[in-house]
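queue> pop job 88
queue> type: inverse folding (structure -> sequence)
queue> payload:
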């Protein structure tokens, strides 16, 4: 699989996680890097994935691969 860059502006690091939003449920969902780029998702590096926060009243759902601890650094 080819690497993809972090979606954050001017971030030079490779993405390790994919962020999607579920607006109906006021939820941000962060999981392992998707196998393909999706147009309505954001690929994040480990640093930006760890720092992720959501607007007040929203939940952040973090999914990880079994056996993985965090997203690394």
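queue> result:
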């Amino acid at each position: 699989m080819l690497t993809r860059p972090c979606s954050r502006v001017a971030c030079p690091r490779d993405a390790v996680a994919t962020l999607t939003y579920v607006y109906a449920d006021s939820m941000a969902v962060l999981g392992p890097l998707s196998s393909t780029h999706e147009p309505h998702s954001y690929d994040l590096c480990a640093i930006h994935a760890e720092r992720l926060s959501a607007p007040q009243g929203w939940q952040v759902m973090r999914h990880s691969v079994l056996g993985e601890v965090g997203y690394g650094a």
